[in-house]
Write a structure and sequence with these properties.
alpha/beta; 434 Repressor (Amino-terminal Domain); Rossmann fold; 14% strand; transcription cis-regulatory region binding; transcription regulation
Length: 349
């Protein structure tokens, strides 16, 4: 009988691989109910740790202790300091960057550019005085955010596309690939008319990658089933239902408003009458299917990029911007019908 792996547990539980690892290590980063659910799945599947691998990991940690090298700065340019990390995606960026920094011997410390008596120039001076040379610039509060900061003395990377114009190397999800993956999965489950309903601001924040990936993926569908993306400025039930009656999607791809759409569709049933999928699936919403963008890994990758720049003595604004794109992964959920179920025959209301 093949050994049960963490990936097997992740697929059964509908969570990311890193979440399973945290649960098996009883990490306090997970909510107790989430940790308990994953541990139950692991027990039901008969999971046992690989003793040889566990011994090797323990041995490596013992003979290669991580020593402190330096501090990295997390640059928060939001008007309200706490609002940035109240966004779960951005909080996972921070946690991923902090943990990976720690593993590599660095400490990650947050610097808020709007603290009383603080200016970007003042923060830069503080960083230079403390010999903090590596910066991770958090996503800006609004697309097209400006950052009047002198990067000359620093190795810097930005998370996402919201800093305009782009000045630094960028680490983000490969949203084009994520959207194409989502359409591919939905088509493989038997959905034929796959619609995209999101706010144009969300697409702008990802450099229009959602619409780009969706448009490319639509070319794999039968011409009669291809739909144009619908990006209304005002997301509301009346607009959504009018669009649905007109375009007749049997599944809707959205971002951030999956639960609102479920309520707008009543008395139609999800997923029996219509499916819902999200471009930003989350572990704490196990019933909503979609693509998980690997937010913790994105933050960890940003830390790796900055540390690599520090080691190569790369400072200031880069002459050529390098984009590091982290792929998303499929996350199943109850908002989509089982691939073996027949397509609903109910006509749109």
């Amino acid at each position: 009988m093949p050994r049960i792996t963490l990936r097997d547990i992740a697929e059964r539980a509908g969570v990311h691989l890193s979440t399973v690892s945290l649960a098996l290590n009883h990490s306090p980063k997970l909510r107790p109910e989430m940790r308990a659910r994953i541990l139950k799945v692991a027990e039901e599947m008969g999971y046992t740790p690989d003793p040889m691998l566990s011994a090797l990991v323990a041995y490596r940690k013992k003979i290669q202790p991580t020593s402190y090298h330096a501090t990295l700065a997390w640059i928060n340019n939001w008007a309200d300091r706490d609002n940035m990390r109240s966004v779960k995606v951005f909080d996972e960026y921070f946690l991923g960057a902090k943990e990976r920094s720690r593993e590599l011997g660095y400490k990650l410390e947050e610097f808020w550019l709007h603290a009383p008596g603080i200016t970007p120039a003042r923060v830069a001076a503080i960083l230079r005085a403390r010999n903090i040379q590596g910066l991770i610039v958090a996503p800006q509060e609004h697309d097209g955010g400006k950052l009047n900061f002198d990067f000359t003395s620093f190795s810097s990377v930005a998370l996402g596309y919201t800093l305009r114009p782009p000045l630094l190397h960028i680490v983000t999800n490969h949203q084009t690939q994520s959207t194409m993956l989502l359409v591919e999965k939905l088509a493989g489950m038997g959905y034929r008319r796959i619609g995209l309903y999101i706010h144009p601001g969300w697409d702008s924040k990802v450099n229009h990658s959602y619409v780009a990936g969706y448009t490319i993926a639509q070319q794999t569908l039968a011409p009669k089933n291809r739909l144009k993306p619908h990006l209304p400025e005002d997301l509301n039930a009346a607009d959504f239902l009018a669009w649905r009656r007109r375009c007749r999607p049997d599944v809707v791809i959205t971002q951030g408003i999956a639960r609102e759409i479920v309520s707008w569709l009543k008395p139609l049933r999800v997923p029996e009458d219509i499916g819902i999928a999200t471009l930003t699936a989350r572990d704490d919403e196990p019933d909503i299917a979609g693509v998980y963008q690997n937010d913790t890994l994105i933050g960890a990758t940003a830390a790796e990029v900055v540390i690599g720049m520090l080691q190569r003595n790369e400072r200031g604004l880069p002459p050529n911007i390098i984009y590091t794109l982290v792929g998303g992964i499929w996350k199943p959920g109850a908002s989509l019908r089982d691939s073996s179920s027949p397509s609903p025959s109910r006509s749109p209301r």
